[in-house]
Amino acid sequence: MTRSEPFVGRAGAAADLRAWLAAAAAGTGALVLVGGPAGIGKSRLVEAVTDREAVWGRCVDDPGAPPLWPWRRVLQALPEVDAEVSRALADLDDRDGADLVAARFRFVAVAVDALVAAAGPGGLVVVLEDVHWADEASLRLLRHLAGEIRRSRLAVVATYRDTGSLADVLPDLLGRPGTESLRLDPLTEPDVRAYLAEVGRAAVDAADALRRSGGNPLYLKAVARSSATGGGEAELRHLVRTTVAGLDARARELLAIASVLGEEVDAHVVAEVAGQPPDDVVPALDRAVRAGVLLPADAGSRRFAHAVVRDGIYADLDQGVREQLHARTAAALEHRADPGVVAGHWLRSAATPDALTRAAGWAEAAARDATRALAFTEAARFLSVALGCRRRAGLRDGLAALLVDLATAEYRAGRFGRAFGHAREAAGLTSDPALIAAAALVVRDTSAPDLLPGMAELTASALAALGPGADPAVRAKLLAQSAAVAADYGRATEAVETADEAMALAELSGDQEARLDAVRARLKIRPTELPLAERLRLGALAVALGGTGRPLVALWGHKWRLDAAFEVGTVPVVDAELTAISALAATTRLPLIRWHELRLRASVAAYRGAFAEARAQNRLASELAAAELAEDRSAAGMSFAFAQQFADVVGDPAELPAGYGELLAIAPPLPITIVSRPLCALLDGRRDEARAAYDALRPRLRDPDFIGQSPGIGPNLLPLLEEFEDVETAEWLAKQLADAPPVGSAGAGTFCSDCSSSWSARLAALLGRPDEAVPLFEEAIAWDARLGARPYVVHNRVRLAAELVVLGDFPRAGSRARQAAEEARRLGMPGWLRRATELLDRARTGGDPLTGREREIAVLVAGALSNRQIAGRLVLSERTVESHVRSVLAKLGLANRTEVAAWAHRRGLTAG
Fold first, then answer.
1. Exposed e or buried b for every residue in 481-492, given b needs 16+ CB within 10 A?
2. What gap in Å lies between CA 141 and CA 143, rounded to an integer?
3. What was the pLDDT predicted at 806?
4. Is the pTM of the predicted complex or chain greater than 0.90?
């Protein structure tokens, strides 16, 4: 592309752009974002710097434009890339039951890889104009390309204004390593003077021209050619009207049609809308080109000199004329344009029932095209247009089905709240049981607390509408949904019964999808209640049936197998399943799978003592959740939950993230959330708050639905039981664990726990049974060492040393404390290093580092006196006694008053 207008004031910007293009040709690709207001010279700069080999695509300000419109122009110019992308889409079309959300990301990955490959050894420059008008699918492709472009010979130059859809993704694009930014500022007075000299208007006052144009080159051109006063856009509009007024009536009529068609128009379409022969239309359009209103474009096409020119002509049309032209344009385009374009024109014509009905039909066709292109946001937009048109036209037939389609598109686009709202509305508009069931099954696999009540209600309504004699596959899917929601509410007993019923119906139906839904529901609730061999079998089945067509199913299968391997301590299987999940994430490019991979890697890294890696993976997971999974608040909450466990493992409250307490306060009252609130307060040093929250939850601890709802409940309870010396609950929990099979670790999806031997040992210590606790801690150390759980080896050595101190075995206590201190120092576990060091000192001094007052209080504690009774006996405040008791526990490395009594008894210390 070339132009004859003067090119002034852009030497620095041109040099920067040339440098980035040269670097791309040499192997360091870049996405260059060129920003600035309309008319500032973005396209002129790019045209001046790029050569004829550059490939151009242009976004348009047309709500009916099909998805990926600018990229389609680019692909047409790159046949090898177009063929590769077309094959990818055809391959997806051939997959029955393909997960379309995953397919969208595979399609984007194929397109990105093909564009990078097309750059080849010779380099490639792609120019995208006006990306502020880009559709969501185009921006998604651009965003993914920015992450891969650095290691290629591809340069993508995108021009934009600070408006439109780009505003939401611009910060993310600018943060990508392959992105460069170039912002064009207004021309200066010397620049304006140089421009005026080049166009032969040196006599015009440069300062006045700068004031009137604002330094905008497009407006400056108008100022230089016109003596009208005013400034900026008004100046240009005046010039447009003046120029158009100088054209003949036929040319003006054709420009009006062209303004309705868009920024770039085909002469034959203009002729069809005008009802005139093309041979008469072409010369008239050429007269508009000579007048500077239009510019030549591709063969047979013309485009407006600037968007503001087209906008000015369009704005001057009377409303009735504009509506009539849109109707004529829609009719002319029905056999040649994309459905969305046709729908847009019918929508902007007179709002008659016929026009609205036609607009709705074409919008639905556009939504189908968008879905095939995996552009779910655009599909939802077109379906929303269709819904509005049908309602305005008074058409009620088919509204419920249309609402289900809209809800499905929104769910695939990640808009869970809006999707469920439309699904519920659809169910309320129909008496068709099949349609009600379809509405109930739109939103799935989410624990979003604001959606759970409605999901439960809608699923129950669907089951009631179907009745017991309905298709067993459909009932199985609904029952699996109901079981999953019940589990999220913490109603495990109800959830198990419902999931079992779902599994029986799924097996009866022979429907694989129903079977998988039932399996997922059952394993979501109480996975360890199923035999290990059965869980491994079901995991393998899910992996096989999921494949790449339903990658989320395959993900759950890998996770079930990974959890089973952790449970029995099979490290090679853990690593193999984690590798398989990574491969699945890399193949599908699906954010949800990548998020699960990062969560698992953070958990496993922390479990093995690779703390720097664990922090990094958790940070990446948090960033991905914020960018791609924003409507699912539970995704962000998982990173906070990880950080809480991490703070406990390393013994450093500084690891607690800011705002976690506030998040827990507004989180739904699920069992794991209720337990996390006092634990967070305790880790943060807010003991009184933690005690109050713990006292409030204690009555619920015997409820099997509460304690068994999540693998994290038990391990999270232990620090609270120890801190608040809840011997009664400890006794009950110890009995529950006594009959349970051993567990190497659990909860890898959030944070890998310690082994069950450690849980039993801690309970025995709390109950004042050191002879029982010592062998259990030794067993836990053996488990952890075999699994590579270095931090938990430190924990259990410290606790073992404390019990050995209680038993008076100071040499062994010192040895275990020394080992724990050395490892804690290597790993970076400050809290546990401090505890190990204190225990080592006590072992060296014979286990009695107390002051006289502390020893006196320890004797009274051993006599079963409460803090209040001790305060009355010694004439001290109760708070002072409480402080002394805490000091005694800390110095002796003991967990509770029972252990203090045992320590005093062994030394023959009794109350006088």
1. bbbbbbbbbbbb
2. 5
3. 86
4. no
